[in-house]
Amino acid sequence: MFDLSVAVIPPIGVDRDKTYPVVYEIPSFGDNHKEGYRFARIRQQNPGFNIVLNRSVYRVVINPEGPNGHNLCADSENNGPVARAIIEELIPYLESKYPFTAKPEARVVQGHSSGAWSAIWLAMNYPETFGGAWATAPDPVDFRAFQIGNIYEDDNMYLKDGEAVPAFRRGGDPVYSVALENGYEEVIGPHNSSAQQWDSWQAVFGPKGENGDPAPLYDAGTGKIDHELAEKYRKYDIAYQLRQAPEKFGPIFKDNIRIRVGDLDSYYLNNAVELLKASLEEAGYLGRAQDWGGYVEIEPRLEA
Prior knowledge:
This protein has 304 residues and is of the alpha/beta class. Helix content is 33%, strand content 19%.
């Protein structure tokens, strides 16, 4: 059992005699549904802010945080049936309570970073629910670039070609390493129990470990990757799923999913987006922003 908390922000001057499209927003790592209240305050303080959109749609901000951190709005062994709860319970309940237009073309999902991964996942797996997605700087969408490391082929998450693998950069220059970031998480909560970024990914993408915590993809001390366990991650590898079933997922990406990231992304998230873009292009499903459908855009010299 788990609860799904949301913030619902009505349009300005809501007319109870009509129904409205809805923008579902998934906050990024560390944020929750209270971001909706912050948005409402900003809108109140700036009446002219995005006035056309704010008069036209409801906004629903979903809390993605749980005991293991960001749940990425995906069903998983460690976090439970989060996606199913959103699709089968939350949205029908909200549509019974508020004047929402109950059609896929009237539902859009959006997010940044972990929220962006969530938006892509929901849009590609539930096209009958969501008619579109906007995702900026998503968490790894191709696990051959799990930030930098390839979980299927590399031996170690912390070292590559004898050098420490960076986790974060500023202005293109590495600031700290994957090993250091995981070391912090191990202090906060050993055995993948910290609910921080790397542990949250292992909670979503991996199975439950023998001790009840998320099973480790790699040794927290040495970084050595468990390749047998890595194979279980493929069910959440967005680009892999696309390559396995391009006729199923390709049209959804081309028509409905919009992805944007900077080529100097602070957490190297552009690496996986570039691989996804190449997979879409190879499959013949790469749209362009000018087409007003789906697209993948990598912005030069942009960090976030």
